[in-house]
Amino acid sequence: MPRRALFLITALVLALHWLVLHGVPLAWDSPQPPAAGRAFSTRTVAPAPAPALAAAAAAPTATAAPKSPARKKPPSPARGTRPAPSQATAEVVARPAEGPVQAAGSDGDASTAAAAEETTSAATAATAPTAAASAPQAEPPAPVASAPGVEEPTTAAGIDIASPGSGTGRNASAPPPPVRIPSPTRLAFDVRGEFKKLPYNARAELLWQHDGSRYEARQEAGAFLMGTRTQRSVGAITAQGLLPEKFSDKSRSEQAAHFDHAKGRATFSANTPEAAVGPGAQDRLSLFIQLGAMLAADPGRFVPGTQVTLTTVSARTADRWTFTVEGPETLDLPAGPTPALKLQRLPRKEYDQKAELWVAPSLNYLPVRIKLTQANGDFADLQLRSSGPP
């Protein structure tokens, strides 16, 4: 084969692999809505006298105020005064931060339970940028923008658990959920997916480690010639479960979220506005360990139809996520037939991703399959290939 043709084929393969890596949704990526393009509109303008036409041309065109009726002006040899431009103001409606109705609790023996396990994979859903991210200042944490008559959940709330038939409100009478932390584990996944109609296959690994008081969760995905993408969560283990301190996401560059639980807020290296976070808030990697720890401690509480809502933080923003317990299934995985419990997060906003999560009781309710589907049809399906000690 001519050297030039071989070089072109190699370059094409490298480019395709780079695109695939950039598109693999790891640990609940945050798909952003398409960048707003320029909007073009056509209007018919009636002929106007020269002085009026000149004044109209001098007026700013990007005003949000409605046009006032044109006034007839007697012709004057002197130049007319340019009208003062009107300014459109963006209004952010701030709602008071709601206190947590329930925070993840302990069953009274968290130090022993902390010797159990965790891991997670599949990253947020996906959340379109929250209204808080559009606030002009980041001083008061996480103001929530809402349209009149539309209520948005505040990220300053705690963990809510709603039993079937209890409605969408908080179940304030229920006791805090106990937790049982899984023991250190390494999970390996086969990844099959589609990115911009291009199918791909990759490998992913989720490593969960802790010493009873501190934890680290790390997830990596990669394939031949396409490099790797890594997400990492570190923090403390408490009686209420995981208390994340930093979440990072690195492919070409690294972005991170830092938690300040004493002040109840999260800050972001991407310079996006800080967000309020309530008790039990998790990042997009620790989230799955925390969910599994709650299920492992009291599986009888999470019957099909139960909804679990908690604040979830990515490397750029925070949002409230709700998972619904769907029911038990037996999966045919690369690791073999595996009984599992399915949970699902349905899209709530236009650019949210659909997230399906299967956790296995035999692995202390760690994830054995995660399927993420974007609004444009792209998806990633992670299926357990093997599990073992770190």
Percent strand equals 25-35%
Task: Quote the average pLDDT.
Answer: 73
**Which regions are unreliable across 5 or more consecutive residues at pLDDT < 50?**
30-74, 76-152
Rg (CA only): 26 Å
| Helical coverage, percent range | 10-25%
* Span between termini: 45 Å
Write up this protein.
With 390 residues, the chain is mainly beta. Helix content is 12%, strand content 34%. It contains four helices and 16 strands. It has helices at 3-23, 50-58, 110-113, 286-297; strands spanning 160-162, 185-195, 198-210, 214-223, 227-238, 241-250, 254-260, 265-268, 275-276, 282-283, 307-313, 318-333, 336-345, 354-360, 366-373, 379-388. It has a 16-stranded mixed β-sheet that branches. A hairpin with a 5-residue loop joins β14 (354-360) and β15. The longest helix is centred in the first third of the chain and has 21 residues, at 3-23. The two termini are 45 Å apart.
Structure at a glance:
With 390 residues, the protein is mainly β. The chain contains four helices and 16 strands.
Question: Which features does this protein show?
Answer:
390 residues; mainly beta; 34% strand
Secondary structure layout:
Blueprint: H1 3-23, H2 50-58, H3 110-113, E1 160-162, E2 185-195, E3 198-210, E4 214-223, E5 227-238, E6 241-250, E7 254-260, E8 265-268, E9 275-276, E10 282-283, H4 286-297, E11 307-313, E12 318-333, E13 336-345, E14 354-360, E15 366-373, E16 379-388
Parallel strand pairs: 10-11
Antiparallel strand pairs: 1-11, 2-3, 2-16, 3-4, 4-5, 5-6, 6-7, 7-8, 8-9, 11-12, 12-13, 13-14, 14-15, 15-16
